[in-house]
Specification:
The complex is a heterodimer. By secondary structure, chain A is α+β, with helices and mostly antiparallel strands. Chain A has helices spanning 3-19, 22-29, 35-43, 62-74, 81-93, 197-227, 239-266, 272-297, 308-318, 325-339, 341-349; strands at 103-106, 115-119, 122-133, 140-147, 150-157, 161-164, 174-189, 229-230, 233-234. Chain B is of the alpha+beta class. Chain B has three domains: 13-126, Butyryl-Coa Dehydrogenase, subunit A, domain 1, CATH 1.10.540.10; 130-237, Butyryl-CoA Dehydrogenase, subunit A, domain 2; 251-378, Butyryl-CoA Dehydrogenase, subunit A, domain 3. Chain B has helices at 13-30, 35-40, 47-55, 74-86, 95-108, 111-122, 238-250, 260-270, 276-304, 310-335, 346-361, 368-378, and strands at 128-131, 147-151, 154-161, 172-178, 190-195, 202-208, 214-227, 231-232. Classes of the chains: A alpha+beta, B alpha+beta. At the A-B interface, helix 6, helix 7, helix 8, helix 10 and helix 11 of A face helix 4, helix 8, helix 9, helix 10 and helix 12 of B.
Amino acid sequence: MNELRAILSDVVTRLFTERVTRELSEAAEQGEWPGALWQAVEENGLTLPLVPEAKGGAGGTWGDAYVVVSAAGRHAVPLPLPETIVASWLLVAAGLDVPLGPLTVAPVQRDERLKLVRRDGGLRLDGTAARVPWGRAAKHVVVVDETDGRATVALVAAGGARVTRDTNLAREPRDTLAFVGAPVLAAAPAAGLPHDAVRLHGALVRAAQMAGGLEAILALATRYATERRQFGKPIGQFQAIQQGLAVLAGHAAAAGMAAANAFRAADRRDPWFETAVAKARVGEAAGIGASIAHQVHGAIGFTYEHQLQFVTRRLWSWRAEFGGESEWATLLGRSVAERGAETLWPFLAAR
Amino acid sequence: MPTFHFELGELPPAAEALRAEVREFLRAELHEHTPAQRARSWGGFDREFSRKMGARGWIGMTWPTRYGGRERSALERYVVLEETLAAGAPVSAHWVADRQSGPLLLRFGTEAQRQRFLPAIARGELAFAIGMSEPDSGSDLASIRTRAERVAGGYRVNGTKVWTSNAHISDYMIALFRTQHDAAKKHEGLTQFLVDPKSPGITINPIIDLRGAHHFNMVVFEDAFVPEAMRVGEEGAGWKQVTTELAFERSGPERYLSSLALILELIREVGKVPGERAAAVVGRLVAHLATLRQMSLSVAGMLEAGQNPNLEAAVVKDVGTTFEQEVPEIVHALLGVEPTNDTGTHLQQVLGYLTQSAPSFSLRGGTREILRGIIARGLGLR
């Protein structure tokens, strides 16, 4: 781990351990915006790992961002931190400035499009996007659309949208944003950016969040198994429990590898393949892992009182967001089949 | 939480340069191999192939040159291993020695043993078998009963080893015997020996596996003599050595590649433009495969860095064998073609071989339950 990552790791662990309290998590689920936490996150530079130093960021890499995003998942942080990191990176990729405040990206659903149109002497945004993460809380929305055959990144004020509120299972805002001729504040083409950049990088950060979440539930379940006693001994001494936790540990390890590898790939090339692998593999681990963690915890883990559900409800939502396992696996399978069996191993070995 | 840690591994340019060389060699050597032959990979025993690998310097390649090694890095060895296994090369005449017997002798053997055995192993001339399990001792390895009693100039051995793969065609066996008996301290009093399976007093009886193939054996020792010079390590140090040896065995990339031949046949079968269901199945398998390779590479990186990734290796083996074991089930569920022995299409034959081999994937080198016990200990549960 390099120096920046070690520092980031210390900062996020300390900040989230201290500040993401039970009260804060519950209040966020009731719809309260954790403004003080956001401010602390922003002041510590955690939203800007990928923004160059010249633009006020940390000048880091996706590998550095992995430290922040996986920690946000591990601590079930109720903020659009991963979304802000992706949105900032998109803006930077297009050479645009990154505004302060929470950002989000849209659209996130497969068949939706937000259209950039030239009207009344300027660029405007038209269209409706559902399930936009933290739509109501974001100051700005970053979209990627095709103009003149090129991927163009655009920044619009979230206030320019009509917002219909909804949430995911973890009661994180997932709102519908309707734009009708909303003025674009800044826009520029981004060379080399794929047209599905929003969904791709959304899947990328969700994979890392889930990998962090799996670490968290492994730790919770392991601790519980050493504390909870039945039949005169800690339940972790029963082989049935040990075997289940070993399976969970395997999935958590696989998830961490798949997600970290996708972030590394994003620093080197088009990370499409590694991101598809990560979203498909980590999403599967999330379902199996949540099931084992709940089984080990028994009835107490099924209560709102217990910490476990703050993570497992997120895992159940995140695995479906920005494309579920089956969608990414299907895309992956098509790309592999098209290249043919002979190329599979050389392709894998080159990554 | 006491736990394990995986960092992303990275292959140096030297290792990548080697990859092209290995691939070219394998392409020339194996061009006539059918998919069903490739699926056998580490079931394949081919002394000529092993000698060619040795001549290339790809056996014992991390060992010191004075013992016939090439002093290459663990990551270069990793590349040779993964390319060889991905190609389905017949490796079993050399790779037990390359993977565990050689490293064991390097670490615990006498100077005379190293000079006698290691260069020949590196040339691909010596095949090794492993004598650990006994009729009443499988997962509970420390309960073995085969006795080695001191006699003039060496030891007299009595007892029985089972599941001894390739004992009938190997040059040597590294066997674990009991040199002292104390029921309360079963992990003590165990010692490893180099055994010549052709010695008097040793009878090798075939055990035929469920496919009708002969690779297992039962090796019976009746007053067999093993010279003192063939003892590996100190008397009583066997348990510690065996644990180290099993860590060598468990850490390699082979623990997820056993079913690669079937995945390739599946991709051929579904064609360039597969339907949605077939595409999703292929994609899921590839997502697992790609992730396991990164996990395996991570362990290789830890080995290269001189760390001791026993726990991480157990995790990779458990996740990897679970994966390679489910591949025939997944292919069956998707295609429903009948698995065959040696008739039918390549797909049917590969499916037939792997369906019948898959049960062994989570048994060999430590059962799934034993591995998960090791992982649970790593989590602090035991």
